[in-house]
């Protein structure tokens, strides 16, 4: 197993160290038990979750979707040949805002570079339309790791 620092470790050694550092986590991993977290959403349009889906990329098809995390309603699905362009994904977000007729309280995306324009648009729109200062407007977007963006990840499992 390699690391960014160029240190190589044997898989067994990593397992032993994890057993010392995090016994419960290692046991859960071995038993394939995931620790589920409760997902609380205050109401409609409180959180919009968005993500890209690449399972069909080998066929030249990508999908980018937006859902309302409270109702799980699909707000917008865009099919294209590329879902890695931040400007294009930002345009998809603005199209969703126009289609819905407003902005959410918060947006949630993974940490990919393609989501930077969504965050920027959400922050700017929150400042302009909600009258928030920059510090508060920056809280209107949440970057998360993809598996924790549960609502949109659930959509992909239903579609495929």
Automatic annotation (TrEMBL):
The record lists the membrane-crossing segments as none
Q: Which Pfam families match?
A: rva_4
Q: Where is the Integrase core domain?
A: 38-159
Q: Which InterPro entries match?
A: Integrase_dom_put
- Name of the molecule in the record: Integrase core domain-containing protein
Q: Which organism is it from?
A: Cronartium quercuum f. sp. fusiforme G11
């Amino acid at each position: 197993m390699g690391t960014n620092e160029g240190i190589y470790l044997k898989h067994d050694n990593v397992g032993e160290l994890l057993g010392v550092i995090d016994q419960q986590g290692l046991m859960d991993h071995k038993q394939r038990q995931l620790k589920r977290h409760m997902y609380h959403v205050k109401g409609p349009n409180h959180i919009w979750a968005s993500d890209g889906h690449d399972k069909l990329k080998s066929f030249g098809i990508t999908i980018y979707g937006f859902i309302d995390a409270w109702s799980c309603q699909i707000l917008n699905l865009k099919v294209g040949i590329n879902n890695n362009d931040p400007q294009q994904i930002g345009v998809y977000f603005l199209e969703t805002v126009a289609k819905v007729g407003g902005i959410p309280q918060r947006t949630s995306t993974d940490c990919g570079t393609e989501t930077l324009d969504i965050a920027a648009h959400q922050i700017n729109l929150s400042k302009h339309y909600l009258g928030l200062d920059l510090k508060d407007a920056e809280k209107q977007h949440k970057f998360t790791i993809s598996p924790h963006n549960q609502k949109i990840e659930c959509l992909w499992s239903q579609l495929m």
